[in-house]
Write a structure and sequence with these properties.
single chain, 7% strand, 3 domains, two-stranded antiparallel ribbon, Fumarase C, Chain A, domain 2, mainly alpha, Ribonucleotide Reductase Protein R1, domain 1, Fumarase C, Chain B, domain 1, 8 strands, elongated
Amino acid sequence: MRQEKDSMGVFDIPDDVYYGVQTARAVENFPISGIKSDPDFIKASVYIKKAAAKVNAELSQIDKKLSEAIIKAADEVLSGELIENFVVDVYQAGAGTSHNMNTNEVLANRAIELLGGKKGDYKTLSPNDHVNCAQSTNDFFPTAMRLAALIKSKTLLKVIEKCEKSFTEKGDEFFPIIKAGRTHLQDAVPVRLGREFQVYSRILHDHKIRLENALAELKVLGIGGTAAGTGLNAHPQYQPKIVSELSKLIDSDLQGASDLMLAMQSMAPFVSVASALRSLALDLTKICNDLRLMDSGPTTGLSEIKLPAVQPGSSIMPGKVNPSMIEMMNQVCFQVIGCSSTIDYCSQAGQFELNVMMPVINFNLLHSMEIFTNALNSWNEKCVKGIVANPDRCKRYAESSLSNVTALNPLIGYLKAAEVAKKVLATGKTIKEICLEENLVDKNKLDEALNLEKQVGK
């Protein structure tokens, strides 16, 4: 064990860990969920500390030798080392002070070792005075949130693109197949199965654009505002220099906020991203429900398509196969919607110069992105790509749909067509049989009107 001291007193810490006294207090205070910081959030946090060390040395705010040690320690963490030392629960002290100090202490203690000292010797290099130089939790944490979301979104956007492409390919494959349309879950005019899948693709494309637009708001950083957005204790050139450095580190066109106080108070950019994810989840739920219904059966449902079988569907009914990937995707969508609601509540819970609910906003946003990325990838590979059509079933439903009578409106009028529909339903005869028996339409015109290819268009 080693002893470390902070403003509250002395605390015993295992000698082999790289975190320090304030982190140890947080571990003791917040044994809440057992969930630790997201890896991309750790990476984003360390990027900030690395950039700050470089910029502060350039501006003569810290010694160059200390800066080099901090940067080297940061690079070790970015390469995957020391990650087990980021131990603070996601539910922690307001604003994220515990996480900030966890990051400061890990980098400080490793930098001290690199300088030839022993962990906890903060006279050599201080977590607060050197690693945290020109920063406060209040500008560091929301900046790390932004960077982490931008980093994580890159994979999510690529997966959305893959799903979009899969639906486009299925749309082309299924385009010749005509099926019964349905509105209100009742028979409607015929449509192309391929067009339904093309629409799913375009829905995903539009949501990708919405998400990209929302993510652009996160590129405006409030770093340099320090404690209350006034920039106290930061060099006048610190903000533009660290924003430039961070842009290089995450390969993104970041910019400094014109109003640092605003950037630290308002959580609106995170609400925008969460809302974009929520909107995507709502439409994905609709798509999943469509696919589930089209695959229902196989003998007592629609059975117009067949989803890939990935596992047995029942512990008691032999041969039963469920739409398991669809069910998983629905559950993830509902979780994302719940996370968005949590972010909404947290965003309005700030007071004056700070929103202390940032840790919960951060956890829910990154969690949504993570599970969406993983779920969409599995759903695409194990479900969407393997969907096959049942052309015979589609054709049978399309030809027998009562709503095909709609094509007769221009020939005999709506009311007369409605009478035909009633007689079809009552007698079991076809639309064509009723029309010919009652001499309502010339046979050639009738055949042309009831031609399904003509009804669905190209």
